[in-house]
Amino acid sequence: MSLDYPGLLAALHVESELLTHRLQDLPFEYWGRATPAEGWSIQDQVSHLAFFDDATKLALTAPDHFAQMAAKLIDGGMDFPDRIAEQHRILAPEALMSWFSAARQELLTLFANTDPKRRVPWFGPDMSVASSATARLMETWAHGHDIYEALGVEHPATPGLRSIAHLGVSTFAFSHRLNGLDVPSEPVGVQLHSPEGLTWTWGPQDTANTVVGAAQDFVLTVTQRKHWTETGLTVKGAVATGWMEIAQAFAGAASKRKPKVQQR
């Protein structure tokens, strides 16, 4: 998949605008509503996005200061996202929205004026600026999805799905290493269908290990919003199945999405 950096930033803008619009007039009592992420409210999801937008800006503009900040957070334990959420629960919804809106707009402007191939540090391996923008798109989609579910509304289909799916495929080796596993040498073919009816493919399609299905189902899996068995994905082969069990498109500690217990 060739890089379309302006298109990537446009997709991030669309995803940001949709979420901001949904949150703009949200009644006060809804901000404390629980989301599918255990222990996290809508307020926690938004403060998470705002904090890591600011962290991304720091990585882009002052990488040494970012490295110090990241090391301090990690030294306190890999549960730092939960600690960050708890620290910001004192904020009123208006202040939180003001923070998120400003942080996101500043970050979009910064991305637009930075070489997409430049390397920047992060909490995991360092990455290109384009990958950093893709990560912010993925995070916005995933945490936005939690918010939409909490509100009982449909998550609108957006142009960013392909970039997030590409990130999910690209983190195949990362997901294995993060879990202390050898990276399989066998290829996995991925074939996804977009909401518009397009077909997107990665890797060989005539291999024993394949993942086939809707792009949204794949993205829900690699962002660990659903276990792959709870989606419409068709997964064949031991390597493909093992990957879907640990797929993780985001930095941080290794985690796995467990399938929901079936009620008898």
From TrEMBL:
Any one GO MF annotation of this record: metal ion binding
InterPro entries: CHP03084 (IPR017518), DinB/YfiT-like (IPR034660), Maleyloyr_isom (IPR017517), MDMPI_metal-binding (IPR024344)
Top-level taxon: Bacteria
Mycothiol-dependent maleylpyruvate isomerase metal-binding domain segment(s): 15-147
Pfam family, one: MDMPI_N
Protein name listed in UniProt: Mycothiol-dependent maleylpyruvate isomerase metal-binding domain-containing protein
Organism: Mycolicibacterium fortuitum subsp. acetamidolyticum
Lineage: Bacteria, Bacillati, Actinomycetota, Actinomycetes, Mycobacteriales
